[in-house]
Amino acid sequence: MELRNLKTFQVVAKELNMTKAAQILMYTQPTVTTHIQSLEKELNQTLFMRSSGNKISLTPAGKTLKIHSDKIFETIEDLHNELSILSGPSGILTIAASEYYSVHYLSHFFKVYSNIYPEVKLRFIQANSIEATEKVLNSDADLGIAAIQDNSTLLEHEILDFERLVLVVSSSIYNKDNSLNDYPFLSYSPNSSFDCHINKAFQTLQYTPSATIECGSSEEMIRRAVLNGTGIGFLGEKGILEEINSKKLIPLYYCTKPILNTAIYLKSNQRNVTIQSFIDVLKGYWLDIAPNNNFE
């Protein structure tokens, strides 16, 4: 069975009009008729019922062939797509991640990756870990960097490293004789991925903030506000290690359970070479571009 004849049948079966099908295929109408007649002879089936004028309709055999021809050409299209992907990473790659990851990691890494794979156009979406996970699940992003491991069976997780959350206060306002309750708490957005860690810390310290200042998903805003003496806040240890070592920030509490930094993507994209190329390079450079590491 020639694919050319089958493609002609598929278009005629969709349009149910020989003249229109010929225009779409850029064939003459006699050529379209010849293709259909060859197919009918090969299958020993009548595929179309012809009525007065140019009206045609599918016979039962024609309806059956249309179902299978559609599947055949879908498979051929999938094959072409997969083969084009195998030619190398290319196209647009959308990454969803928080401000923390974009500032401390991705802002450096994008240059590295683009130098290796210039054919890939990178697109960044700012989102906290929960939002990044949702965007990957909804296919609004190809890949996410998140501080949580979602239990969805649809997702693949690549652990990049881990770090601790630290409750800190500026040394400019810290007085060890004061109650923690005297300090306002600088919080993330409601339903943050850090909520369980924060609640456990509050229980352990018996801390009930005198006030709460919501700072959205911006860790950098919280860091600056803590340094300015606005209140106390939870921050990733790696991003503030320099301030802790220089005693600009005083650690009040270290979370016992580390935060996992993970790259997430749909399991259905495990064979996507563009996504895999990004993850492979990211895993190789992640520790080098971590906060407080020298990176050029």
Automatic annotation (TrEMBL):
Listed InterPro entries: LysR_HTH_N, LysR_subst-bd, WH-like_DNA-bd_sf, WH_DNA-bd_sf
Pfam families: HTH_1 (PF00126), LysR_substrate (PF03466)
Gene3D superfamilies the record matches: Periplasmic binding protein-like II, Winged helix-like DNA-binding domain superfamily/Winged helix DNA-binding domain
Top-level lineage group: Bacteria
This protein's UniProt keywords: DNA-binding, Transcription, Transcription regulation
One example GO MF annotation: DNA-binding transcription factor activity
CDD domains to which the protein is assigned, alphabetical: PBP2_LTTR_substrate
Domain HTH lysR-type: residue ranges: 1-59
Tagged with keyword DNA-binding: yes
Family designation: Belongs to the LysR transcriptional regulatory family.
Protein's name in the database: LysR family transcriptional regulator
Organism the protein comes from: Lysinibacillus composti
